[in-house]
Amino acid sequence: MTEGKAATPRDRAATEDRIVEAARQILVEKGPAALGINAVARAARVDKQLIYRYFDGLDGLLAALGERIAAWWVQRLTDEAPGVAPSSYPEMVEQLALRLLRVMRTEPLARQSLLWELADTAGAVQPLIRARSRAMVEWSQRVRGDLVPPAGIDAPGLNALIIGAVSYVALAEQNARNVAGLASSDPANWDRIEQALIRMIRGAYRLE
């Protein structure tokens, strides 16, 4: 299926959406190595020239997909387990970590984003990796307000380790029957992991 030069703005928007969604599906199902102009054109059922016309090629398409994924991340982090606004910086980190874990456990796109980050040695999906980081920063800015880390705490270093731990256990659940010895099929173990995550954050930020 192709579009002529007389496409209306609505037609163009619909086609752009179809192209971006086709690229996302290829990445989720086959990974970055399978992504290319020809593959996206086939999946979207469009002439590949439209991808060049609308996105200036693969880099522009990945940038558009990155924007969509960033918006998706912000929405999921906002929707997941909404609750009382945090009253302190450590509480904000705790909320982010728990929401991130729950999103990664339930959303294939979230887990796949992590795999792209680990496996993309050529840097093809760097816009998507940056989109995930940007989304977490945007969520934090929305809820942070005037909250600041406790004095003497290396918040960026701690947060990097916390996010790394969350990422590992989410991926381990997908690919193994246990997470560091805990059966991943037992919901009680995920309650234990969440409680341990809370204690780890509070201990690191000297709240316990």
Label the structural class: mainly alpha
Our estimate of the beta-strand percent is: under 5%
Task: Point out poorly predicted stretches.
Answer: none
Count of helices?
9
The count of β-strands is: 2
Largest sheet: 2 strands, antiparallel
For this entry, what is the oligomeric state of its chains? single chain
Q: How would you characterize this protein structure?
A:
The chain folds into two domains: 9-56, Arc Repressor Mutant, subunit A, CATH 1.10.10.60; 66-204. α4 runs parallel beside α7, α5 packs across α6 (108-119) and α6 (108-119) packs across α7. The protein has a two-stranded antiparallel sheet. A hairpin with a 2-residue loop joins β1 and β2. Helix content is 71%, strand content 2%. The protein is mostly helical and 208 residues long. It contains nine helices and two strands, in the order ααααααααββα.
Short description:
The chain has 208 residues and is mainly alpha-helical. Helices cover 71% and strands 2% of the residues.
Question: What's the topology here?
Answer:
Elements: H1 9-30, H2 37-44, H3 48-55, H4 58-79, H5 89-106, H6 108-119, H7 126-144, H8 155-175, E1 178-179, E2 182-183, H9 187-204
Antiparallel strand pairs: 1-2
Helix pairs in contact: 1-2, 1-4, 3-4, 4-7, 5-6, 5-7, 5-8, 5-9, 6-7
Describe the structure using short key phrases.
208 residues, mainly alpha, Arc Repressor Mutant, subunit A, 2 domains, 2 strands, globular
